[in-house]
Amino acid sequence: MTGFGLDQGVQMGPVISQVSRQRILSLIDRGVQEGAKVLVDGRGKTVTGYERGSFVHPTVLSNINVHGELIRTEIFGPVLDMIHLKTTDEAIELVNSGQYGNMASLFTTSGTAARKFRHEAGAGNMSINIGAVAL
Q1: DSSP structural state of residue 12
Q2: Whole-model pTM?
């Protein structure tokens, strides 16, 4: 649940400022303009009692454009971008072509693919078959 961080049951508080909130929302919009599909939409929602707060609810985008803005931008917000690639080599190439290399996750049923990705992809926070969490 998104809300004031000290309230019971809240798992995610606000982003750092209204400027950050607007930046995150504009990046989500940009991803959609570039062809992403919105699976979970965190835009346009408020937190009761904190309507003026800088909250962005969780957002999940799929089919991110590999040549678009989101692929090369650290969003710093509760947005998960998913890209479906056909081969492990494509995934490794995509991760290694990035400027930052903060995090990457691979979902596969192949132990061989998992080991290859783990050893060849250059991300600081990497996970296999579970989402990576920025700490």
Answers
A1: B
A2: 0.84
